[in-house]
Amino acid sequence: MPRHPASSSLALAGNAGRAVSLADVAMLAGVSPGTVSRALSRPEMIRPTTRMQIMAAVERLGYVTNGAARSLAMRRTMTIGAIVPRFGSSSFPTMIQALETRLAAHGYTLLLSAPEHKLSKEPAILRTLLERGVDAVALLGEEQLTHALPMLPASRIPFVLMWAPPESVNHAVGFSEREAAALVVAHLAALGHQRLGFIGGRTGDNARAQRRFHGFTVEVAKRGMTICEAAMIETDYGFEQGYAAMDQIIEDLDRADRPTAVVCGNDYLAAGALSALDRAAIEVPRALSIISFNDNDFASYLHPPLTTVRLPIREMGEQAGAYLIARLRGAAQPERVPLHVGLVVRQSTGPVFEGAIRRKPAKTR
């Protein structure tokens, strides 16, 4: 049974002008100071009941670890740095939350930098994280390696690339964009679609947008299908951008060579596109099919519910965390293989319709 000193003794410790110590926590929890230390730095080594007992004592006493002293003793700061650009309308928060959860389970704190996309390659951002003494670094995509090398090898710390093809880049966790695009194009081909539009991210400086568009074009060509130039738009990822792009495509939907389906680079663009079509009273999927990538939480609640490729967004964060933990501990590293993708068919795609577009009655207010 744990030993519980009198509350007056605890009050004395708090009022004596000194900070609560590891020994105070150990005394209240009825364990040794070494057990408390391991519970705080390597929680997986301690039995759950003992760990809960220790954490209850930590909370009751308001104990805060002396981070500087622990870092000197362990030669580690127990922090992981991450650089993930454009944290707004994207799937990155889900991935980062999974990464942080995995790291926190092993006692690590995540230091996140979320710069504007155009600033994400600035060497100063990575240099700042390294100067703070992070134990490892997580980067988004292989394009960040240009400025990260030679800093990372010089620092001799582990790093991982998230959302990068593991078959082509070392230290990478990701999936096959070609496989994801093949699912989209095969689904549309099976429905009879031959002329496609595409609303995607800017490919000039975004490797993920480049791979997605390249996979799409390769699969379209393989099946003898056509990409309608007037319905091929690059833009920033977001609801507003998807709405504006579809507004532009709508102007040419009366042409005989119009697209019968539009592929959107992610669900945010697709949501905006569906809103523009709804505002224009164009029926989906009867007049135009819409399909996308990501399968964000809101995809099934759109009107109509969105057909989209489910990407392993959360799994990328989890596996990136597992990879870094394994590297930091010198353990066997998880095998790096492309993560699974799968098509989720909902009501935004349907058989091709070659007739003139009939607009549904405008909504009355």
TrEMBL record:
Q: Per the database entry, which stretches of residues form a coiled coil?
A: none
**GO MF annotation: an example:** DNA-binding transcription factor activity
Q: Which UniProt keywords apply?
A: DNA-binding, Transcription, Transcription regulation
Q: Which Pfam families match?
A: LacI, Peripla_BP_3
Q: What range(s) does the HTH lacI-type domain occupy?
A: 20-74
- The protein in question is named Transcriptional regulator, LacI family
